[in-house]
Every structure is written in C-alpha cells, then in structure tokens.
Design goal:
This protein is of the alpha+beta class. It has a domain of about 160 residues: outer membrane lipoprotein receptor (LolB), chain A (Clam), CATH 2.50.20. It is built from four helices and 15 strands. A 13-stranded mixed beta sheet has the order 1-8-9-10-11-12-2-3-4-5-6-7-13. Strands 14-15 form a two-stranded antiparallel sheet. The chain starts with a helix and ends with a strand.
Length: about 260
C-alpha cells in the first residue's frame, strides 16, 4: 500500500510540474515558436552534415492478442553519406539485419537466415526517396528514419497540430531541450542537444489510437559528425553461401533486383 501510494503521489507531482510547460500542447493548432525553432535548428544542422555516423538504442512496444504489451529492443548503427548513400545495421531481440543503399541499389540482408534481396532504383534517387520507396514498395521500414531525411523538419511537422517546449533535461549526461508535439494519429517527443551541435538525443513516439498506446523510443549516441566513409561501406557484398531471394512487392508490381526481375 505504501509503495502504491508513493507512486501515485509521484505521478501527481510529475503531472503538476509539467502541466504549465506543456499546456499549449492541449490547444489545437498551437505550436510554440521556440519549439519550432529548436526543431528547425536540429534539422538544419543535420542537413549541413555531408556524412556522419551514430548509434540508436531502440525499444518498441508490441501489443499481443491478450492486450498485454511486450517490449522489444534493438541496437542500430547508422551511416549516412549525402545525398544518396546509407547503411543501417540492426541487431535485436527478433531482428539481425543489414540495409544498404549505394545510390542505385537497395539491399536488405538477413544475417540470421543468410538471405538477401535487392531493389534497383534510379541513380538520381536521394536518401529521402529511397527510404520512401523501400517502405511503400516492399514494406521495409527503418525506425526513426525521418530524422535523417533532408529537411527533416518538414517531414516531422507534416501532421503536427500542436507543439511545446516541455523544459530542459539531460540524456546520457548531455544537456537537451525537451520538446513535445501532437498529431492526429501519434504524439511524439524529442530531446535535442543544446549548443552549437543541436543533435537529436532521444525520440519517443506514442501511437495513441492503437490499443494500449504502444510506444517507440530511440536513444541516440556515438555521433561522429566528421566521419570519412568509404563508398564500399554502402554496397552489399554477399558471402559465398548467401542466397538471393526476391522482395514481395506491396503494390502488386514486380520489383527489379540484381540478377533479374524478382
């Protein structure tokens, strides 16, 4: 009883302490200028980086048929070379994958099963378009990828109805601005580093109309904003025993891969 009462009292204190800072988030079409400014600074800074690497430690809630939430984790290492190359290595509870784009070919490699699939795209396609094609054509989605889009601000703010500066905080010892935004389908929060390198340090998305309001959280670390990346990093080289398979297209059309139409 003491523990339950203490936790309840703590929840009241926390709710009361942030209510004033976040009150404008309850008002439709209310985006605080400071919140928009901090997010814009983050987006502009990321746009200014020609190539960079970082790590994301992700958790995602899944809701099983009984209604219980199960949280799954993954560690993700990301390399970006603008305008049109990326590499994502993701290893977690149920996933062990590598995702490549070298400006011409998207490759998804499942390390555990030793299968890979390719999708050829136009040489002129940038990172934004490649990620959208992967998601819409074959259902390959990179969590939190909207943060590395060129002009991430526009992508993030597309469905935002309100936004506020919750306050200041720390993430892994880094001083940050804590921002909160609301949209029609999801609420999300982001923690942006203070100072002349406004990097995202944490990102949380709540799917508010899904049963149980599951959340996705990413904590970002190990930023290298002056990385020198070899082009070979972004092209998949299969092992002798790796087997090529085809993507299953979502739109009922064939997907062109290396070695023919899959």
């Amino acid at each position: 009883m003491i523990r339950r009462t203490s936790l309840g009292f703590l929840a009241i204190l926390v709710s009361f302490s942030i209510s004033n800072a976040a009150r404008s988030a309850d008002e439709p079409s209310a985006i605080e200028p400071e919140a928009a400014q901090v997010l814009r600074q983050m987006s502009d800074y990321l746009d200014s980086l020609a190539q960079f690497t970082f790590r994301a430690n992700n958790t995602i809630d899944t809701v099983v048929r009984s209604g219980q939430q199960i949280q799954l984790s993954a560690q993700v290492d990301i390399a970006i070379q603008r305008p049109n190359r990326f590499r994502v290595n993701r290893k977690g509870d149920i996933v062990d994958q590598e995702f490549y784009f070298n400006g011409k070919t998207l490759t998804l490699y499942g390390k555990g099963v030793n299968y890979y699939a390719n999708m050829n795209v136009s040489e002129m396609v940038d990172i934004n378009t490649a990620l959208e094609l992967a998601k819409e054509e074959v259902g390959v989605f990179v969590p939190a990828s909207d943060l590395v889009y060129q002009n991430a601000y526009q992508a993030l703010m597309e469905d935002v109805e309100s936004g506020t500066v919750v306050g200041t905080s720390t993430v892994d010892g880094v001083d940050v601005h804590h921002l909160a935004f609301r949209g029609s389908d999801v609420d999300w929060q982001i923690w942006v580093e203070k100072g002349d390198k406004p990097l995202p340090r944490k990102y949380l998305i709540t799917s508010k109309w899904v049963t149980g309001a599951p959340q996705f959280t990413a904590v970002f670390s190990d930023w290298n904003t002056s990385a020198q990346l070899d082009d070979a990093l972004f092209t998949f080289s299969p092992t002798p025993k790796a087997e090529q398979i085809g993507f299953i297209p979502l739109r009922g059309r064939s997907v062109s891969g290396t070695g023919g139409t899959q």
